[in-house]
């Protein structure tokens, strides 16, 4: 496990790319009320109430040394 961080400091090699994968689910919220507008010296204020608007799953694949990434958004998680 201690050797893994050393991979990020190696130079880029096309034959041995460093690929990272992560997945997460997010809840989608819909605002019920419009935010109070910003006034001079204060930011806009949002009400804490919301309407639940479903969930989405995010799958992210990236190759940090080359700057490449791909994000796939799906409605449900599948094996």
Task: Give an overview of the whole structure.
This protein has 79 residues and is mainly beta. Strands 1-2-3 form a 3-stranded antiparallel sheet, with no helix packed on it. The protein has one domain (4-74). A hairpin with a 4-residue loop joins strand 2 and strand 3. The chain is built from 1 helix and 3 strands. It is 5% helix and 42% strand.
Describe the structure concisely for a colleague:
This protein is mainly β and 79 residues long. The chain has 1 helix and 3 strands; from the N terminus they run H-E-E-E. A hairpin with a 4-residue loop joins strand 2 (50-63) and strand 3.
Mean pLDDT: 86
Count the E strands. 3
Which regions contain 5 or more consecutive residues with pLDDT less than 50?
none
Coarse morphology: elongated
How many H/I helical runs?
Answer: 1
What is the total number of structural domains?
A: 1
Strand content: 35-45%
The secondary-structure class comes to mainly beta
Tell me the strand order in the biggest sheet: 1-2-3
Radius of gyration: 20 Å
The span between the termini is 27 Å
Helix content: under 10%
Q: Please outline the major beta sheet.
A: 3 strands, antiparallel
Taken in chain order, the helices and strands follow as HEEE
């Amino acid at each position: 496990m201690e050797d893994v961080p050393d991979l990020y400091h190696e130079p880029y090699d096309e034959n041995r790319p460093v690929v990272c994968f992560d997945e997460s689910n997010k809840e989608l919220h819909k605002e019920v009320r419009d935010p109070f507008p910003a006034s001079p010296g204060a930011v806009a204020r949002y009400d804490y109430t919301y309407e639940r608007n479903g969930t989405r799953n995010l799958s992210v694949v990236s190759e940090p040394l080359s700057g490449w990434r791909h994000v796939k958004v799906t409605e449900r998680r599948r094996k």
